[in-house]
Write a structure and sequence with these properties.
- The protein is of the alpha+beta class.
- It has one domain: Jelly Rolls (Sandwich).
C-alpha cells in the first residue's frame, strides 16, 4: 500500500493528503463529498484535490452522482475521481448512504488534524 501512496504523491506533486481506512460489510453505502468540500477542511487550503480509492479486500462499486452507471471494483482495484466529483461507493442492496463529510467533521471535532 505504501508503494501506491508514494507513487501517487511523486507523480502528482501533491502537498497534502487525507487517508481514510474503512472496513465495511455488506450491505453498505457511503457518499463521498466533492473535492471542494474536502479542501475546505485542509489546513493549507489546497486548491485542487485528487480523490482516489483502493480496494484492499472484497468488492464494491462506485458511481459519480451525475452518472447512472457504476464501476465495479475488486480487491487490488484503484479508482481515481480526477475532477473531484461527489460519488457513492457501496456493496450490496441499496441502503441509505453514510455521509463521509459528516464523518470528517466528527473526526476533526475530536481534535484530529488534517493537513
Amino acid at each position: 500500500m505504501m508503494g501506491v501512496r508514494s507513487e501517487v504523491l511523486k507523480a502528482g506533486k501533491l502537498d497534502g493528503v487525507v487517508f481514510f481506512n474503512g472496513e465495511f460489510s455488506s450491505s453498505w453505502c457511503a457518499r463521498q463529498p466533492d473535492a471542494c468540500t474536502i479542501a475546505s477542511y485542509m489546513s493549507n487550503r489546497s486548491t485542487h484535490l485528487i480523490i482516489y480509492h483502493v480496494v484492499r479486500e472484497g468488492r464494491g462499486s462506485v458511481r459519480v452522482e451525475q452518472n447512472n452507471s457504476s464501476i465495479l471494483l475488486r480487491a487490488g482495484g484503484i479508482i481515481i475521481i480526477p475532477h473531484g466529483d461527489a460519488h457513492l461507493m457501496g456493496n450490496g442492496p441499496p441502503v441509505t448512504p453514510t455521509d463521509s463529510a459528516e464523518e470528517l467533521r466528527q473526526v476533526l471535532a475530536e481534535g484530529n488534524r488534517v493537513s
